[in-house]
Amino acid sequence: MTDQTPFRLLLAALGGEGGGVLMNWIVEAARGAGYQVQATSVPGVAQRTGSTSYYIEIAPKDAPQAVLSLVPMPGRVDAVVCSELVEAARVMAAGFVSPKLTTLISSTARFYSTAEKIAMGDGRYNEDNVRKAAQAMARDSYLFDLGALATENGTFVSATMYGALCGSGVLPWDLSHARSVLGDARSEAGFDAAVAEIVALKDGAGDAEPEPAPVTAPQPDLAELPEGLRTVIGHGIDRLRDYQDAAYADTFLERAKRLIQAADLSDHRAVHALTEACRRLALWMAYEDVARVADLKTRPERFERIRDEVQLQPGQVLTVTEYLKPRAEEIADILPAPLGRRIMARVARGKGLPLLGRGIYVRSNGVAGYWMLRAMAGLKRLRRRSYRFALEQQAIEDWLGVMQAALARSPDFAMGLAELPRVLKGYSDTLQRGKFAYGRIMDNIVRPAIAAGREAEEARRLRDAIGAALADDSHEKLDAVLAGDSPAPGIPNLKRVENA
Question: Which residue numbers delimit the DUF6537 domain (predicted)?
Answer without folding.
Answer: 230-441
